[in-house]
Amino acid sequence: MTQNDKNPQDSVATEELIELKEPRLYQVLLHNDDYTSMEFVISILETVFNKSTPDATKIMLNVHHEGRGIAGVYTREISETKISIVHQLAEKNGFPLRCSLEIV
């Protein structure tokens, strides 16, 4: 059998095109309440959301004045994990701080 007699499928390189979509992003929102201290909100923003102190303070003031503030934008799984961590820390520290997520 010569090279010309080979099955064309065996000798032709095929390339499979896979279309990848960017994952949908979600905003993690912190909601204002009358009991959670400003210091605790800043601490949450610094530790859970890796914000600098000036950025955390700005977000906390937005939560305080506007009723909610954007803590960060992440994929759904990361957003849900961060929300769970915030709720656990808030409960552990006796605060009713709540988070939610919203599609960007």
Topology of helices and strands:
Layout: H1 8-11, E1 25-31, H2 38-47, H3 53-66, E2 68-75, H4 76-92, E3 98-103
Antiparallel strand pairs: 1-2, 1-3
Helix pairs in contact: 2-3
The proportion of residues in beta strands is 15-25%
**What is the terminal separation in angstroms?**
60 Å
What is the CATH homologous superfamily assignment? Ribosomal protein L7/L12, C-terminal domain/Adaptor protein ClpS
Major beta sheet summary = 3 strands, antiparallel
pLDDT averaged over residues: 91
Low-confidence stretches: none
CATH architecture grouping: 2-Layer Sandwich
Count of helical segments?
4
What's the CATH topology name?
A: Ribosomal Protein L30, Chain: A
Radius of gyration: 24 Å
Q: Helicity level, as a percent range? A: 40-55%
Give an overview of the whole structure.
The protein is an alpha+beta fold. The chain has a single domain, classed as Ribosomal Protein L30, Chain: A, CATH 3.30.1390. It is built from four helices and three strands. A three-stranded antiparallel β-sheet has the order 2-1-3. Helix 2 packs across helix 3. The radius of gyration is 24 Å and the shape is elongated.
